[in-house]
Each structure stands twice: as C-alpha cells, then as structure tokens.
Amino acid sequence: MNDSHQRNPFALTRRTMVEGCAAAVGTVGFGWPGRPVAAPAMGDPPPQTMPVRLTINGQARDLTLDTRTTLLDALREHLGLTGSKKGCDHGQCGACTVLVEGRRINACLTLAAMHEGDAITTIEGLADGDALHPVQAAFIAHDGFQCGYCTPGQICSAVGMMNEAKAGWPSHVTAQIAEPLEPRSALAEAEIRERMSGNICRCSAYPNIVAAIRDAAADI
C-alpha cells in the first residue's frame, strides 16, 4: 500500500474501482442471456402478460409475453432469432429492421403484441433454403459489410425499400414525385442513399452497400 493511500484511506485507486464495480454488479440479477435486470421495487405490481401468436418466417409461434415486450426482444430473447440486432434501441440506427407484411419497420420501436396475425420476415427467413435472397447474394458479391453488425438490418431494409420504389413511392430526392417511378430509375445512387439513410453502418461500407443494392434490383 502506498503512502498516499495510508494518508487518505478513501483515495480512489484502480483496485478500489474494480472492487466497487464488482460489488455493484453483484447486487443486480441477470436475465436471459446474461442481461442485467434490476430487482423490482417493493410494492411494484407484477408484470402484465398476455398470450401472443406471431407468424415469423411463415411459422406460427405462440408466446406469453410481458405486454411491454418489443418485437425485437420477442425475436431475440424469446425465439432465439438473433439475426436482428439491438444497436441503439431508439430507432435511430436501423440494425433491428425487419419486414412486417412486406414493409420495413424498426423492431425496437413496436410492441410484439401489436403484430399478432401479421406476417413477419426476419433476416433468417429471406433465403429459400440454401438459395440466398438476391440482396444477400449481392451483399456478399460486393463485400457490402465489414463487421457485419448492421448487415441484417441493411438487407431487410433494402428489400423493403425496393418494394417501395417499385410501387412508385417517391423520396425526398425524387425529381417528379407526381409520376410513378420506373424501378431502375428509382434506384439511382442518390435514391438508394436517401431511401437507406435510416440504416447506419459505423464501418462506413456505404459505397459497397449502394453497389450491392443496385445490382440486386435487376434480379427482384
């Protein structure tokens, strides 16, 4: 023990910091899978649960969920479908994007109980057996990822975005918003970048992502 600690027993050292953090962690329980869960306060009512049937990738799944469970947590923590990632948990990064009735949504911003009866497609359900979805194949061919964390959300968002463009939905950069868009012209680079702006790649693989989407558009 050094002289400064002998003079001041309350001095902060690396050892006291580690010991303090370990003690704090020890007072917190852990849920699935190793996720910290605060102990309920005395007198708090028990969580309200309800049965929910979700149709995930063509398969009906029956769950009993806390009414506050997000779709993302239902997928990851209750069904083991961990392809959809929890990035910001605030709907700002797009890593949790899935398709609901063919439309892309942020799974972290919607409750699972709201989607009973909806057809939900995650990254795990895009491929047809061993045959990759054209967007998945294009991302591999164009090296449209680095760490891969955002990739499931990027791919699901790209599939939903292509459906929007083919349906003639304009974007902020569309020149003639009153006229239906041709699928190929709708997916010029500026359109892709604008329409995919809700999906963040912290590795900055955007040029390859854009190239992959333009290439896949011809096959969908």
Automatic annotation (TrEMBL):
It comes from the Bacteria. Residues 50-126 form the 2Fe-2S ferredoxin-type domain. Keywords: 2Fe-2S, Iron, Iron-sulfur, Metal-binding, Oxidoreductase. GO terms for molecular function: 2 iron, 2 sulfur cluster binding; metal ion binding; oxidoreductase activity, acting on the aldehyde or oxo group of donors. The keyword Iron applies. PANTHER family: OXIDOREDUCTASE WITH IRON-SULFUR SUBUNIT, OXIDOREDUCTASE, IRON-SULPHUR BINDING SUBUNIT-RELATED-RELATED. This is Aldehyde oxidoreductase iron-sulfur-binding subunit PaoA. It comes from Methylobacterium dankookense. The lineage of its organism: Bacteria, Pseudomonadati, Pseudomonadota, Alphaproteobacteria, Hyphomicrobiales. The gene is yagT_2.
